[in-house]
Amino acid sequence: MTPFDAELNGDTLREECGVFGIMQHPDAAALTVLGLHALQHRGQEAAGIVSFDGRQFHTERHVGLIGDQFSDSSVIERLKGERAIGHTRYSTAGDTGLRNVQPLFAEFAGGGFAVGHNGNLTNARTLQRALQEKGSIFQSNSDTETIIHLIATSRKVALIDRLIDALLQIEGAYAIVALSEKKLIGCRDPLGVRPLVLGRLDDAYILASETCALDIIGADYVRDIEPGELVIITEDGLESQWPFAPARPRFCVFEYVYFARPDSVVDGRNVYTVRKQIGAELARESPVEADIVVPVPDSGTPAAIGYAQAAGLPFELGIIRNHYVGRTFIEPTDAIRHMGVKLKHNPNQHLLKGKRVVLIDDSIVRGTTSLKIVEMVRNAGAAEVHMRIASPPTRNSCFYGVDTPEKTKLLASRMSVEDMAAHIKVDSLAFLSMDGLYRAAGEEGRNPVRPQYCDACFSGEYPTRLTDQQALESETTVSLLAEAG
Asked: Are residues 154 and 53 in the same domain?
């Protein structure tokens, strides 16, 4: 990636990953490709599929988009069998190379096993070190491989018992799909931070990160996999096990704000509807005299519709997004780099000129994109620019599968709202309150003692231990003290 691309893509919260699995369907591989197409928004770096034909496993793993890498019919033909799992990836743990592309596959003494997961293990580094000291050799730096090594070194006999033994040792957030010679397996972490749903297409069971992956193949949504539930699907049907101690669910509230597709139903709620309600809450909390409401496309659009309806203001597409921007081959000068935002967004000057504009966006991360968007709208002739953000200030890094900058690079972690407004050069700036976000998601408000969702990126209250992060901070402290001494 060139410096130009980094500037275009580095000021947003990046999606985690998407998983898909299907059992007992003659077109398993082709349906997995379609399912991954629907989940492409959750990861655009790489994708992989593993299938099983009753005798052997078949694997295809590629760097790039689903449509670019899996559209050739010969790829589908190589993925034989009536069961398969797939994964589309954005790297939050491990680099982008092919060795980290999931699903990962291993041959155990009892047979082959493939696994892919969405989320992030917060003690993977600690576990890897312990496993390496005992002789394990890692082929990747993906946290998913930790699960494979824990299964391989388990003293349990049955595969499911070995998998459970591994899961009881890991911490963090995960939605897992796995494939053995006889089973399709799905599991969510005990807090249910990351989503996973169950579907049905004729006699085939399906696991997927979101319901939009079921819609694309004409499958029926059955239910969510529950937090802490392990589902085992065989030719005889489905059974559930509950290997973890009971815990209060803490689903990731940012799935509603940004990550999930608007047409998906996650945790029982339609994402588009929640985002419109977020906009309505924002309008009630932070009204402003204005002429038009304009979304920063595309993630700000549903909230902008909700804001406009609640405020009684016209909704207008004052910024047009170019959906066909890829990685540029240009190595730009400073003057060309300054134009970079226009590769993705261009102002609709006819609508903006002379208007008091309310800009709606989902979040502010580093603030660099917001600054350029505001400047672009002002240059198009807007009389005033007011920005409203459809989430609370993002002050903390995520360690559960979302790629966020380190805390010191988050604008809200080092500036007040007033200072942020001055920095991005808006006439006013306001964020949705935490209670407003919870109300939009169907709650009366946020329970300060027992929060209903994971909102650590806003509150700093992490629902699990951050073993690796705490170890890293301790190592850094020791290193700094040594240098000072």
From this structure: yes
